[in-house]
Amino acid sequence: MTYCEIFMKNTLVFSQDSPENEFQVYSKRKTFGRDRRMSDLHKPHILIAEDDGDDQLLLRLAFEEIFTAPDLHFVANGQELMDYLLGEGQYHNTAPPSRPALILLDLNMPKRGGYEVLQAIKSDPQLRQIPIVILTTSSHKGDIYKSYDLGANSFITKPHTFEGLVKTAKTLHAYWLETSQLPHMV
Fold this sequence. Notes:
CATH class of the largest domain: Alpha Beta
Mean pLDDT: 79
Oligomer: single chain
Number of strands: 7
Structural class: alpha/beta
Order of helices and strands: HEEEHEHEHEHEH
Helix content: 25-40%
């Protein structure tokens, strides 16, 4: 059973008590500040490079604890991330994507790995000012040093619990999107 399946098993209750005989879904988990979510007017665009579908779902749920409908865009590999930022590949001939306020980057991805993408973004004069937070399962000292050497703005090891992920999402939001003055927001 995957981590996501365990999470969903422990957090959802299904009921067929509605008048229309439709299934209703109720959450058993605590709401971590759901009533204090930000308004849609202040939603930043966050680009998340994560190849694991379960982790994508958990990240979406964690950010939904902060925003009513977060402006998250997921890419599944490093090449797709670069295509998104540069308007190439599947993003060619489409409306230009909005510039992300923050990029969350996993290190271990297919096609183009996190290090290669990090180096490419920080070498590009049009992209280098976008803050990049490494969000990965690794806690190896070598990965931390190499990430910072290549220009990462922060390095975070993925928490093992959903509560930890929500706390991480809130911390990222508070620091990078409320406290820091970012070039594209000035």
